[in-house]
Specification:
CATH topology of the largest domain: Alpha-Beta Plaits
Number of domains: 3
Radius of gyration: 51 Å
Shape: rod-shaped
Order of helices and strands: HHEHHEEHEHHHEHEEHEEHEHEEEE
Number of helices: 12
Oligomer: single chain
Helix content: 40-55%
């Protein structure tokens, strides 16, 4: 079962089955084509033999030498190569078997012109539909008969009573006789079957070699790099330093491996400097050895600001002008927040997060948000704008790695504030229900459609800040 779970094994089995199915279908089609061609070729041979036998009978009779024809068919009966050619009367009896035809001709001529020739032979089965068809319809016919000795191809050629023949044979019948030629097919079928078996064995060998080659290529070129990616991810998840993935090729899988390696290394670097990771690994919530590097759980009002409308990144990255505009916008937001005694917790991408504590922290957060909105509202169409969220709750604050003093804010309240910021429209400030209650009598707000949380299972009331009183 473990072998079946391997991708290389499943690919090999699938390829083998598809190759064998395709080869089997092709061989079956080839066999049907060969059988059809065999019947066509044998049919042509039978027609040629029958035409030669008919010409022999005609020439012998016209030369008034029926004995020659009788002797030829008698010799043919003893020759393995010619025994498949026979001449029959229209009643199915073997020609020249009892001399009745010669006696009938002598009677029509009124003289004993021809000597009876009697060479006993087998009679054709009068119930043979093909024989009766040739006589009654005066038409040739080729049929295949399954007998005790295998398949036999049979051709019946009627001999028409032509005008120059009526002087001796009379005019009371249209067909004078039927040339019957047979060709056994069993030997050809056996030879064809042996060739098919040899072709099938060769195809199986070729399929096995092909599957082996493809399996080696898949394991080396596809599964090898994927296994390296999996091992690197596993080491990164367990906290180990990710090793360099060496993939010498330059195809898509190798490109994926190199890009995955860069991503894993960057994630590992960010994990090493993550405040959450430091908080979880430090005893008693203390980070580092200095007294200033401590994580504190406090009540605060959080303000999340998202800078939007930034020009898309081009082929050569963000332009210097755009970077300068972003820096100017973030600096402006930082000045406004610091003027309201807020602490900037983090700057990520095009946004920042700040928190406000102490008496009037909620009101100062609202004033900061209103000031930031006012700074961006007056800008023209196409200029960067902001969306903001404000929420109050319990958060954990601490320093960014290598810094001193509070520099990061984490917790469910901070996550919810980020959700509010993400739902805010152009230059809009969204307040949570708790923050709205704290702003009663100090600001003008208006309710909005509830915000869906936790996959729609929780609906949270939110409000838009109109102005601060």
């Amino acid at each position: 079962m473990r072998l079946f779970h391997r991708l290389s094994f499943r690919i090999s089995i699938a390829m083998l089955l598809v190759f064998l199915a395709g080869t089997g279908s092709l061989l079956a089609l080839l066999q049907r084509t060969q059988v059809r061609s065999l019947h066509e070729i044998k049919g042509v041979e039978l027609k040629i033999d029958a035409a030669l036998a008919a010409r022999l009978v005609q020439n012998s009779m016209m030369a008034e030498n029926p004995g020659f024809a009788a002797q030829w068919f008698s010799d043919a009966a003893d020759d393995p190569l010619l025994s498949r050619v026979a001449l029959h009367r229209i009643d199915g009896s073997y020609a020249f078997s009892d001399g009745s035809t010669v006696r009938e001709v002598n009677g029509i001529l009124g003289t004993q012109r021809f000597s009876p020739v009697e060479m006993p032979g087998n009679s054709s089965d009068l119930s043979d539909p093909a024989f009766r068809y040739a006589v009654n319809r005066v038409n040739e016919i080729t049929t295949r008969i399954e007998g005790a000795k295998g398949s036999v191809l049979v051709y019946h050629l009627p001999l028409i009573n032509q005008p120059r023949c009526t002087r001796c044979h009379g005019t009371d019948h249209v067909v004078r006789g039927v040339v019957r030629v047979t060709a056994p097919l069993e030997g050809e079928y056996r030879s064809m079957g042996r060739r098919m078996i040899a072709a099938m064995i060769l195809c199986v060998i070729m399929a096995s070699v092909l599957v082996l080659v493809v399996t080696i290529v898949v394991r080396r070129e596809i599964l090898g790099p994927l296994r390296s990616i999996g091992n690197a991810v596993s080491r990164a998840a367990s906290g180990e330093a990710p090793a360099e993935m060496r993939v010498p090729a330059a195809d898509e899988i190798s490109l994926l491996a190199r890009q995955s390696g860069r991503l894993i290394r960057r994630l590992a670097e960010r994990r090493d400097t993550s405040p959450m990771d430091r908080m979880q690994s430090a005893p008693n919530g203390s980070v580092g050895s200095g007294p200033d590097e401590e994580w504190l759980t406090i009540e605060a009002t959080i303000l999340a600001v998202s800078l939007r409308g930034i020009a898309a990144e081009g082929r050569d990255g963000i332009s210097e002008e755009t970077l300068a505009s972003i820096g100017e916008s973030l600096a402006l937001q930082g000045d406004i927040i610091r003027n309201q005694e807020g602490v900037i917790a983090a700057v990520a991408g095009y946004g920042l997060t700040a928190y406000f504590t102490g008496d009037g922290g909620a009101l100062r957060a609202l004033r900061a948000a209103e000031a930031i909105r006012g700074a961006f509202a007056g800008r023209g169409e196409g200029a960067p704008y902001v969306g903001m969220g404000v929420h109050a709750g319990t958060v954990t604050v601490g320093p960014i790695a290598g810094g001193t003093g509070p520099g990061a804010v984490i917790g469910e309240a901070a996550d919810l504030c980020a959700r509010l910021c993400a739902s805010a429209g152009r230059n809009t400030i969204i307040l949570s229900e708790r923050c709205n209650e704290m702003a009663q009598g100090k600001a003008v707000t208006s309710p909005q459609a509830p915000l869906s949380l936790r996959g729609g299972r929780v609906q949270m009331n939110i409000y838009t800040l109109r102005r601060v009183l």
